[in-house]
Design a protein that fits this description.
7-stranded mixed sheet, 120 residues, 4-stranded antiparallel sheet, mainly beta, single chain
Length: 120
């Protein structure tokens, strides 16, 4: 019943910005760590940014200070704010979250993926 709905992907010019959103649908949710990952065709999925329940963040080295992960717990939504985008950022981005429903059992959920394309 839990679903992660992503939005915000699209086409942007190099140097531009995009903000990805990941909203968890469902009732009585407890959301722990949430992360953004990306995966190019033929490559392994790699971590982009992670944010804990308490707001601590971790970023991949390639982010180089350009991205910010944020969460709005009241809206059950996590954002990835991406600035200074480069063509090499072009790929599919996925949201992942550890979520428990009223049963108290934490499970991992993946969003469907959203395409980010950065033009030269």
């Amino acid at each position: 019943q839990v679903q992660l709905v992503e939005s915000g992907g699209g086409l942007v010019q190099a140097g531009g910005s995009l903000t990805l959103s990941c909203a968890a649908s469902g009732s009585d949710l407890t959301i722990n760590t949430v992360g953004w990952y990306r995966q190019a065709p033929g490559k392994q999925r790699e971590m982009v940014a992670i944010i804990t329940k308490g707001g601590s963040t971790t970023y991949a080295d390639f982010v180089e200070g350009r991205f910010t992960i944020l969460r709005d717990n009241a809206k059950n939504t996590v954002y990835l704010r991406m600035n200074s985008l480069k063509p090499e950022d072009t790929t599919v981005y996925y949201c992942n979250a550890q979520i428990a429903r009223i049963d108290g059992i934490f499970r991992f959920y993946w969003g469907q993926g959203t395409q980010v394309t950065v033009s030269s």
